[in-house]
Amino acid sequence: MSDRGLTDDVLRSTLVRGPTPVRVELAEHDPAWADRFAVRAAELRRALGGRARLVEHIGSTAVPRLAAKPIVDIVVGIDDPDDEPAYLPELEAVGYDVRVRQPGHRCLRIGEPDEPVNLHCYRPEDDEVHRYLLFRDRLRSDDADRRLYEDTKRSLTGREWPDVNYYAEAKRPVIMEILRRAGWDG
Known about the structure:
Layout: H1 8-14, E1 22-23, H2 32-48, E2 54-58, E3 72-77, H3 88-93, E4 97-102, E5 105-110, E6 117-122, H4 127-141, H5 143-155, E7 160-161, H6 164-181
Parallel strand pairs: 3-6
Antiparallel strand pairs: 1-7, 2-3, 4-5, 5-6
């Protein structure tokens, strides 16, 4: 969402339910997050078959030793995320609920309140997919960048945000700094 500049109007146009105030709290890394991903990944592959061209665990819960919001993030590669009839009925049938509609991107949610999962649908070759994976892999392999990112997140917790996307936007400068060190030139 930040590519267009984050504003309340942008959020209202992309969030299916509109902005939702949130207080971000972090949890210490939990190895069960990888298990939650594995269960959901298998479910996605069963539901979508070959239409799921890529299924990856992304975000902070995919990085050992990194504190995170206890929400597992998954990216799935779909040939055309805007063609909802080609995949959305199968995702809704297993319980996913659309939360974000943007050109070339859908975000769905399942598992609330106990085991929440965000599912991001992009074309497999989308730059955003590459950024997610590059960032995850950098944090897995570089202790200093992982600590920098966690310190940044901790500095932003414990306050009320008009929507979680504002929290994400506040982390963006550090994310871009880490991505540049990882070789991102976009």
